[in-house]
Amino acid sequence: MADEVQIDPELVTSVYNTCVNAVNSELAPDMASLQAVVQSLLSPAGGLYMQDTSAALEQEFTDFSANMQNLFNQILSFATTFQNIAGSLMNSDANMASQISSQTAAASTTARTPAMSSPRT
Q1: 49-83 pLDDT tens trace
Q2: Which residues contact 83 (CB under 8 A, 6 or more apart)?
Q3: Could you give the CA distance from residue 12 to residue 24 in angstroms, rounded to a whole number?
Q4: CA dihedral sign of residues 46, 49, 51, 57
Q5: CA-CA distances (angstroms) from residue 96 to 3, 46, 88, 91, 109?
Q6: Phi/psi of residue 60, each to 5°?
Q7: Cα Rg for the chain, rounded, in angstroms?
Q8: How much of the chain, in percent, has pLDDT values that exceed 70?
Q9: Does 8 have pLDDT greater than 90?
Q10: Higher model confidence: residue 35 or residue 6?
């Protein structure tokens, strides 16, 4: 039967790092740059300014940016949860092995120690 639980800490760490790096090194900075460009475009001297529409577009983009920030936070939350679950499973495996070893050692010691009989009265 195939192993039912397999944990590769290097792959787990790689997924975590990929998610964190994507948000912090690419997505969030690109979104901030895009926001600056859009705000500039929608200003009176920007290049896509319309007296009534620009304010609505800017609000729409602000809402979009907030949604993107929520997405970034969810990606980071997923990455942390993913790493924590793998870590918990690895710790659980080590703890169970330690408990089994301790119980086996205790049982072995008990089995070798002759039982003391109580004195007859």
Answers
A1: 998 899 999 999 999 999 999 999 999 999 999 89
A2: 12, 13, 15, 16
A3: 18
A4: negative
A5: 17, 64, 12, 9, 20
A6: -60, -45
A7: 30
A8: 88
A9: no
A10: 35
CA 70 to chain centre: 15
Distance separating alpha carbons of residues 18 and 10, to the nearest angstrom: 12
H/E run at residue 30: helix 28-41
Give the Cα separation of 109 and 61 in Å (integer).
Answer: 71
Both tokens assigned to 32: 């901030």
| Residue 40, pLDDT score | 93
pTM: 0.71
Residues in the chain: 121
Q: Determine the Cα angle at 55 with ends 49 and 56, to 5°.
A: 115
pLDDT greater at residue 77 or residue 100: 77
Name the one residue in this structure whose structure tokens are 């939350």. 77
Considering only CA atoms, which of 94, 62, 73, 58 is closest in space to residue 27? 73
Of 8, 22, 20, 14, nearest to 87 by C-alpha is 8
